[in-house]
Automatic annotation (TrEMBL):
SUPFAM superfamilies, A to Z: HD-domain/PDEase-like (SSF109604)
Keywords of this entry: Hydrolase, Metal-binding
A Pfam family per the record: HD_3
UniProt keyword Metal-binding present: yes
Protein name: Metal dependent phosphohydrolase
Residue ranges of every copy of the HD domain listed in the record: 15-182
The organism's place on the tree of life at top rank: Bacteria
Length: 196
């Protein structure tokens, strides 16, 4: 029991580092950049509150677990913004390899049974093929959109994002898992773009 608890707390202490990883997206009030731990918590809340937007059969408890875990790899890799123009591209094979390596290191801190289960859940999210992962990824794309809308444009201004880029990089992913949600969010975003 002592060894198991030591491993569990080693993981939890490592996960605390996510609080120091700053993301490109700001808080809704625009006062500062959010950290990845705040993002993960907010996404878990999104899943809880927007569960009615999920397809039939989606297990919201699994979605919440995925969203709490999905960005732990940023402890090693950092945030790679979806709209960034230069540097390492979001979703590139280099980023995916670095994230897979980080996931292996982080989940191996846990006792083998728990580490294996949580690592498998992270891999399911990354693959984005199961109904639970598809919905989780949809929410992961919606939350920054809402933060940008609430903060007066946030990183959209910083990265000179166009409505076409938003549709291509965000819309398709959200539509796949929460089509009615994207219809509403897209209308809000297009209204914002029309005013700038």
């Amino acid at each position: 029991m002592t060894d198991r608890l030591a491993a569990q707390f080693a993981f939890l202490n490592e996960a605390d580092k996510l609080k120091s990883v700053l993301r490109a997206t700001t808080l809704c009030d625009g006062s500062r950049r959010e950290n990845s731990a705040e993002h993960s918590w907010h996404l878990a809340l999104y899943a809880l509150v927007l569960a009615d937007q999920a397809a039939p059969g989606v297990d919201i408890n699994r979605v919440i677990r995925m969203l709490l875990l999905h960005d732990l790899v940023e402890i090693d890799v950092g945030d790679v913004p979806i709209h960034s123009a230069g540097g390492t591209a979001h979703g590139s094979s280099d980023v995916q390899a670095a994230e897979a390596k980080a996931a292996k290191r982080i989940f191996e801190l846990l006792p083998m049974d728990l580490g294996h289960d949580l690592h498998a859940l992270w891999q399911e999210f990354e693959a984005g093929e199961t109904p639970d992962a598809v919905f989780a990824k949809s929410l992961d794309r919606v939350q920054p959109v809402m933060a940008n809308l609430q903060s007066g444009g946030g990183t959209w201004i910083e990265y000179a994002v166009t409505p076409q880029q938003l549709e291509a990089r965000v819309g398709a992913k959200v539509t796949r898992g929460a089509p009615a949600l994207w219809t509403w969010v897209r209308a809000q975003a297009l209204d914002w773009f029309a005013k700038v």
